[in-house]
Amino acid sequence: MKLNRLSSTDATFDEALHALLAFESTQDETVNNTVNHILTDIKKRGDDALLDYTRRFDHLELSSISEVELPKSDWQHALQRLQTAEREALEQAAQRIRLYHEKQLSQSWQYTEPDGTLLGQKITALDRVGLYVPGGKASYPSSVLMNAIPAKVAGVNELIMVVPTPHGEKNDLVLAAAAIAAVDRIFTIGGAQAIGALAYGTGIIPKVDKIVGPGNAYVAAAKRFVFGLVGIDMVAGPSEILVICDGNIDPDWIAMDLFSQAEHDEQAQAILLCPHQDFLDAVAASITRQLEAMPRKEVIRASLEARGALIKVRDLEEACLIANRIAPEHLELSVSNPEQWIDKLKHAGAIFMGHHTCEALGDYCAGPNHVLPTSGTARFSSPLGVYDFQKRTSLIQVSPQSASTLGTIAATLARGEGLQAHAMSAEFRCK
Ligand SMILES: NC(=O)c1ccc[n+]([C@@H]2O[C@H](COP(=O)([O-])OP(=O)(O)OC[C@H]3O[C@@H](n4cnc5c(N)ncnc54)[C@H](O)[C@@H]3O)[C@@H](O)[C@H]2O)c1
Ligand SMILES: N[C@H](CO)Cc1c[nH]c[nH+]1
Ligand SMILES: [Zn+2]
């Protein structure tokens, strides 16, 4: 296979790195046109359009719209059908994710000024949230846990899950995860039509306040379109891993860490930064050797050839600078003293510290969320968390004494803006 081998001292390094990072699939014009058409149709024809698109894209023939909802007994049976090991793994992962996210709960606060004015911030959970669970090419029970648990920890009243079931095939692990995470309702719909149904509401699908959860390019484009009418978590791009390594580890481990994100899809990104040429060569050899045994080898190969790279850096200091430029979704700091480098790393969705912390643990059960900013957006955004399901309302209760002081300030500023009613409203309350 043709691996991209770069060195930070090459004259063309910046250009080569820029080319590797370029990714624009959710902006694709054909996808946007299709999604626009689907959303308009869902808005206009509601449930009838939903049935038509579910038939067309998921090959699911339903005789009546009521069949898109899965009764709760179905998910409970799915949970009971699981092998003990699978059920225990889901429950243990759920427990760790819950404990971690409970730390994120924000509380309302208020304070009173000396003249009796009270100021504060009231925290309220969102009323109704839609959770998109992908189901086109693969199933993601871990994503059910990662989205539903923080929502429930925040106190969301009603959590509506949608998941496509191509040819009517339901995934027991996905349904069992929904039961464990206490989702409220499940509908077997997917793609842009599911996002439209959640955003506008149809006869059967209730309109939600916010839509969360990852999906393919159609789902991502639909979320962009409905943003504003409803809230969205983020528009997640393909998975990314960046490994900074000191070379003191088995190269097979690092090659497999790169595969672990490359196997998600052809556009996933896997980059290794290391100061030691012999270690980079050993990882390259390991990639070639281990790839043949991987069930998803064609996806891994395509991803590594298009957007993967093994990069020789001058030292770990420079590796941190390059990592900050890339702002990866996942950053493995595979070095002996990871704490030493943390202050230098400013932009990453999640940092996995030390030789024993592989990124895959974070995908399933470490505790922190696996829904993370991609495509460089870690420069300004954060992992999905409880805070995404809570909103803040300001509280202001002005004492009679303060009404005079504040009223004078406000009236002066209001007249400066030419707003007479503002000024008079404040002055009426001045003593
Ligand atoms: N970032 C994360 O945390 C995370 C987690 C899990 C999955 N993912 C990503 O989510 C994505 C899941 O994609 P998927 O395809 O498996 O499932 P999906 O559920 O996102 O998409 C399937 C739906 O796409 C629609 N669709 C397919 N082809 C279409 C077409 N030609 N026209 C209109 N609509 C069409 C159909 O409605 C179908 O139901 C992957 O890219 C995966 O990497 C990300
Ligand atoms: N790595 C993905 C997020 O980038 C999440 C995931 C789900 N299953 C396995 N991995
Ligand atoms: Zn993953």
How would you describe this protein?
It contains 17 helices and 15 strands. With 431 residues, it is α/β, with parallel strands linked by helices. The chain folds into 3 domains: 5-23 and 237-366, Rossmann fold, CATH 3.40.50; 27-232, Nitrogenase molybdenum iron protein domain (Rossmann fold, 3-Layer(aba) Sandwich), CATH 3.40.50; 398-427, no CATH class. The strands form 3 sheets. A 6-stranded parallel sheet has the order 1-12-11-10-13-14, with helices on both faces. The chain has a 6-stranded mixed sheet with strand order 2-7-6-5-8-9, with helices on both faces. It has a 3-stranded antiparallel sheet with strand order 3-4-15, with no helix packed on it. α2 (29-45) packs across α3, α2 (29-45) crosses α9 (217-226) and α16 runs antiparallel to α17. The protein is globular, with a radius of gyration of 25 Å. The relative contact order is 0.15. The mean pLDDT is 96.
Element layout with pairings:
Elements: E1 5-7, H1 13-21, H2 29-45, H3 47-58, E2 69-70, H4 72-81, H5 84-102, E3 109-112, E4 118-125, E5 128-132, H6 141-154, E6 158-162, H7 172-180, E7 185-187, H8 191-200, E8 210-212, H9 217-226, E9 231-232, E10 240-245, H10 251-262, E11 269-274, H11 277-291, H12 297-307, E12 309-312, H13 316-326, E13 330-334, H14 339-342, E14 350-353, H15 359-364, E15 390-397, H16 400-416, H17 420-427
Parallel strand pairs: 1-12, 5-6, 5-8, 6-7, 8-9, 10-11, 10-13, 11-12, 13-14
Antiparallel strand pairs: 2-7, 3-4, 4-15
Helix pairs in contact: 2-3, 2-8, 2-9, 3-8, 4-7, 5-6, 5-7, 6-7, 8-9, 10-11, 16-17
The structure holds nicotinamide-adenine-dinucleotide (NAD), L-histidinol and zinc ion.
Zinc ion is lined by residues 239, 261, 264, 363.
